[in-house]
Specification:
Helix content: 40-55%
Largest sheet: 9 strands, mixed
Order of helices and strands: HHEEEEHEHEEHEHE
Shape: globular
Strand content: 15-25%
């Protein structure tokens, strides 16, 4: 009797486990994914509506020619660069329309690079001229900067006592080490600009880059899930990804101050 009772209990447990893992958990995951997708779609729509209904700016129903649109973009970009030139620190200008990225200080171009590839969120095409001018005629401030490589490499060494000890402490540069350069900027906590090295041959990704990507995705997932659990719409941050050579990506990343300013033109 005890053996039959134990066998029945075991079958019941297996039955409940099967229901839990084959029905309940998958149903919860599907429901959560649908809720996540719906919430993000509403968040994107609200963000676009927010930019199109900026306080103090009337709705724009006029038909603008390509030349007029271009003048508005150029004028907004120049205004942002003039404001940024009043800052003592190094700033970054990103001209997506002309595929140019520059490091500037007080209006002087320190370094310039042209890129041939970029991925741009369709969100940026939803702007009307009036709201584009309001958003991009001033520089954005960096609120987060992070990458797959160390931003400020520092080596602490003990001063040698004499020339003999100094000769023994010559640092050998490891030229065999390959670093995949990838980093991002969060601007005013509202949009993201990512830089990825253009040389993306198979097998170039290293462990620091994978950790950086996993950390970014986990952070976004954590923030979104926290908002959903508190019945809040998650924040949507439109993103632009620019591909430039590895050496330039590294030098630009290390030159930018943590709270620097960025001027954008689309």
């Amino acid at each position: 009797m005890n053996v039959m009772k134990d066998a029945t209990q075991l079958r019941n447990k297996r039955g409940w486990a099967g229901v839990l893992f084959l029905r309940v958990i998958p149903a919860l995951l599907v429901t959560w994914m649908l809720l996540y997708t719906l919430a993000m779609a509403v968040s994107v729509r609200n963000q676009a509506r927010h930019f199109r209904t900026t306080e103090g700016i009337p709705g724009d129903t006029l038909a603008w020619s390509q030349e007029e649109w271009q003048l508005i973009r150029d004028k907004s970009f120049l205004e942002a660069r003039v404001i940024m030139a009043g800052n003592d620190s190094i700033g970054l200008t990103i001209d997506v329309a002309d595929s140019v990225v520059r490091l500037e200080n007080k209006g002087v171009v320190l370094r310039e690079i042209r890129f041939s590839e970029a991925e741009i969120s369709r969100f940026f095409s939803s702007f009307t001229p009036a709201h584009y001018a309001a958003a991009f005629s001033r520089p954005f401030t960096i609120t987060e900067i992070e990458g797959s490589i160390v931003k400020e490499p520092i080596q602490v060494k003990k001063a040698p006592r004499d020339s003999t000890e100094a000769a023994q402490n010559i640092t050998q540069v490891d030229t065999s080490r390959v670093e995949f350069v990838e980093w991002h900027l969060q601007l005013d906590s509202s949009l993201v600009v990512s830089f990825v090295q253009a040389e993306r041959s198979f097998g170039t990704l290293d462990w620091p880059t994978l950790k950086y990507r996993i950390r970014r995705h986990l952070k976004t997932l954590e923030e979104t899930n926290r908002d959903l659990l508190h019945f809040r719409l998650p924040d949507y941050k439109p993103e632009v990804t620019i591909f430039i050579p590895a050496g330039e990506a590294k030098s630009f990343y290390r030159a930018l101050p943590p709270s620097g300013e960025i001027a954008l033109k689309f």
